[in-house]
Amino acid sequence: MKKLILIDALALLYRSFYGIRDLSTKSGQPTNAIYGFVRKINEIRSIYTPSHFAVVFDGGSPKFRKELLPEYKSQRSPMPDALREQISPLKDYLKAADIFYITIDNQEADDVMASLAVQGNGYFDKEYIASGDKDMYQLINDKLQMLALSGKSEVFDATAVQEKTGVMPEQIVDWLALVGDAADNIAGVPGIGGKTAAKLLNAYGSISVLKSKYDDLPDSKVKESLGQCWGILERNVKLVGLDTEIECGCEWDELVVTPSDPNKLLPLLDLFEFKSMAKDLREPTLF
């Protein structure tokens, strides 16, 4: 079975950085994000045994989103220095472990992962995206699912999307357009939260149908809010919809999972002072 797993690098790095505190080398070099990252990808690879695997780094926001919304993601705090300085050493680890990683300038990791997944739809039997971003819900189908970055990396499928949001994956773009996305500084329609948005989309199917049936809407408050926000909704749909047509410039063969060479990895594990990982690599168990 051809099975692809894509890792949202920054999402996992941030989770590891804040989830593991006060881990550094004797010289003071922080290693907490690297440690958590490596443990999690090793866990995912062990549980789901992918044939193809890639780590996707964020390359910045594309120009069109900033043009649509100048304040897009502007509320986010700068990356902590102690996290930023772990990115280059992590990439050294990925190189040594023969794990493919990709960064495309001015392209968000979500769009790159979406493009890889959609473009690989006819090639792979199963695809997983490990991410905590609800934008990715729109991609989920029978072949493509999300993996949670927390806990035991549980699978997040269409049923889970519906339970969490009240709508199906194919309605997520419209749902996000209605409610907004605080993580990306995208404001939704005032007075419309997740439950109301789900109720509207379950009744009308989409924003376009909702607009065509606007005169018949029974709730006067919802009607008033929508009537003032059609332009915002049109903009939001463009903002939250993922770009699946990015030319990523890689061949599927580059993503094939191969056994790591201990001679390449051990010097880095020793440098990071990851003693237990180094010991496991030097003395692999049979069972």
Tell me what the structure shows.
This protein is α/β, with parallel strands linked by helices and 287 residues long. Helix content is 45%, strand content 11%. The strands form 2 sheets. Strands 3-2-1-4-5-6 form a 6-stranded mixed β-sheet, sandwiched between helices. Strands 7-8 form a two-stranded antiparallel sheet. The longest helix has 17 residues, at 32-48. The two termini are 24 Å apart.
Topology:
Layout: E1 3-8, H1 9-19, H2 32-48, E2 52-57, H3 63-68, H4 81-84, H5 87-96, E3 100-103, H6 109-119, E4 126-130, E5 144-147, E6 155-156, H7 158-165, H8 172-179, E7 180-181, E8 186-187, H9 194-204, H10 207-212, H11 220-227, H12 230-240, H13 262-272, H14 275-282
Parallel strand pairs: 1-2, 1-4, 2-3, 4-5
Antiparallel strand pairs: 5-6, 7-8
Helix pairs in contact: 1-2, 8-9, 8-12, 13-14
Class from secondary-structure proportions = alpha/beta
**E-strand count:** 8
Form type: elongated
The Rg value, from CA coordinates, equals 21 Å
Q: Major beta sheet, specifics? A: 6 strands, mixed
Low-confidence stretches: none
Fraction of helical residues: 40-55%
Number of discrete domains: 2
Which whole number gives the mean pLDDT?
94
